[in-house]
C-alpha cells in the first residue's frame, strides 16, 4: 500500500468527528450532498476596534470614580497607540510605555520616582483589557496587560500626628485664611470620621442623620457607610447647610460663602497656607490623609484592630485571616470610640464619653 493512500478512521476519530459536526450544526447528509452550512451555525468574530475606539467604549461603561482615576492614563495610551488595533500591543511594549510615563511624571516634593504613574498606567490598561476579554475580542491568555508586573510600592511615609502637631494645625486652620469657618469644619470632619477627601466632597444634606448623629459617607470602591459624628460636629454641619445651602437635599453639602460647592482645590490651598505658617507641614508634605492616619492609630491603640477597621470603612477584602469576618465591629462600637475621641456622649455609644483628646479640634 502506498504511503499516500488514506487510512481507515478509528472508532474514536469517527466519534470525535460526529461531535464536531453536531456542534457546527452540520449533518453527514449535508456534507455528502454538498449543502452549505446553515447561517445560524456560522460564528462571525466581532471586528477588532482600534485602541482609541475601545477606550471611548470603556469610558462610557465604567463608574465615575474609575473614570476619574484612569482617564488621564487612557488619554496617554490613546496619544501613543490610538490608531493601533486593540490586540496589537505586547507586554514588552506596555512595559516600555510604563517606563516612559514614569520618566515623564511631574516632579514634586513628595515624588517617588514616578512609580505611581507607572502603576496607574498598567492598572488602566488592565481595566481596558478586562473588558476586551469579557467582550470576546481577545482570549484571556492573550491579555497583554495582565502579564506586566506593576512597580513595587514603597512604604508610606505618612504616620500619626502628635497631639501638639494636631493642635498647631487646627490653630492655623481656624485663625487664618479667607474662610476660617469652612477650614475648621473640614479639619474637624476629617479628624472625627477619618474619612477620605472624596468622602467629604461627596457629602449631601440628605446624608445627615441628626437624630442618631450619623453621616453617610460614599468613598472609593463605591463603598457606602454610616459614620458616627459628635453632636457638636453635627450642629456645625447643619448650621453650614442652613447658611450656605440652596435647599437641594441631594446637592453638595460643603460650600463657600457664595454657595458654590468646594472642590479638591480647597484642600490644596488649605495645606499650602498651613505649610507657610508651620514649615514642618510643608517639609513633610502633610495632607488631609495624615488626619486619617492619626485618628485610626488612636482608635486602634485604645479599642483594637476590629474597631479601627470598621472606623476606617474598610471592607475586609484584604484581610489575611477569615477571623476578621467574625470579629467585625458594629456601628455602636465605632460610636463608642468616637465618643471617647471627641469627649462627648453619642446616642449610639456604649458607655460614657471620656476626656477629649489633647489637641482635638474644638
From TrEMBL:
Coiled-coil stretches: none
Residue span, Tyr recombinase domain: 156-339
UniProt xrefs under Pfam families: Phage_integrase
Keywords: DNA recombination, DNA-binding
Core-binding (CB) domain sequence ranges: 49-133
Domain of life: Bacteria
PANTHER family named in the record: INTEGRASE_RECOMBINASE PROTEIN MJ0367-RELATED, PHAGE INTEGRASE-RELATED
UniProt record similarity statement: Belongs to the 'phage' integrase family.
Descriptive protein name: Integrase
Organism encoding this protein: Cryptosporangium minutisporangium
Amino acid at each position: 500500500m502506498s504511503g499516500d493512500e488514506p487510512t481507515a478512521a478509528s472508532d474514536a476519530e469517527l466519534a470525535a468527528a460526529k461531535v464536531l459536526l453536531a456542534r457546527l450544526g452540520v449533518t453527514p447528509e449535508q456534507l455528502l450532498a454538498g449543502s452549505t452550512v446553515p447561517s445560524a451555525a456560522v460564528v462571525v468574530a466581532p471586528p477588532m476596534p482600534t485602541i482609541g475606539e475601545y477606550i471611548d467604549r470603556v469610558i462610557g461603561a465604567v463608574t465615575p470614580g474609575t473614570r476619574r482615576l484612569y482617564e488621564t492614563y487612557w488619554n496617554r495610551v490613546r496619544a501613543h497607540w490610538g490608531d493601533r488595533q486593540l490586540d496589537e500591543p505586547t507586554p514588552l511594549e506596555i512595559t516600555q510605555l510604563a517606563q516612559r510615563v514614569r520618566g515623564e511624571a511631574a516632579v514634586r516634593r513628595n515624588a517617588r520616582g514616578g512609580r505611581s504613574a507607572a502603576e496607574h498606567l498598567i492598572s488602566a490598561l488592565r481595566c481596558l483589557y478586562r473588558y476586551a476579554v469579557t467582550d470576546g475580542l481577545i482570549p484571556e491568555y492573550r491579555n497583554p496587560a495582565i502579564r506586566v508586573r506593576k512597580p513595587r510600592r514603597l512604604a508610606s511615609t505618612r504616620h500619626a500626628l502628635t497631639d501638639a502637631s494636631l493642635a498647631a494645625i487646627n490653630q492655623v486652620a481656624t485663625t487664618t485664611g479667607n474662610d476660617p469657618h469652612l477650614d475648621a469644619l473640614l479639619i474637624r470632619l476629617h479628624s472625627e470620621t477619618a474619612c477620605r477627601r472624596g468622602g467629604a466632597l461627596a457629602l449631601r444634606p440628605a446624608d445627615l442623620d441628626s437624630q442618631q448623629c450619623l453621616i453617610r459617607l460614599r468613598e472609593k470602591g463605591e463603598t457606602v457607610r454610616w459614620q458616627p459624628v459628635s453632636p457638636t460636629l453635627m450642629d456645625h454641619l447643619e448650621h453650614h447647610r442652613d447658611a450656605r445651602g440652596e435647599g437641594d437635599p441631594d446637592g453638595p453639602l460643603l460650600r463657600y460663602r457664595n454657595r458654590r460647592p468646594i472642590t479638591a482645590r480647597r484642600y490644596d490651598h488649605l495645606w499650602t497656607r498651613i505649610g507657610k505658617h508651620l514649615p514642618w507641614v510643608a517639609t513633610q508634605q502633610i495632607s488631609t490623609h495624615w488626619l486619617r492616619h492619626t485618628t485610626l492609630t488612636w482608635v486602634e491603640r485604645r479599642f483594637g484592630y476590629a474597631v479601627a477597621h470598621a472606623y476606617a470603612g474598610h471592607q475586609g477584602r484584604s484581610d489575611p485571616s477569615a477571623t476578621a469576618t467574625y470579629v467585625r465591629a458594629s456601628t455602636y462600637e465605632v460610636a463608642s470610640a468616637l465618643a471617647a475621641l471627641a469627649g462627648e456622649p453619642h446616642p449610639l455609644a456604649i458607655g460614657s464619653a471620656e476626656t477629649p483628646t489633647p489637641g482635638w479640634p474644638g
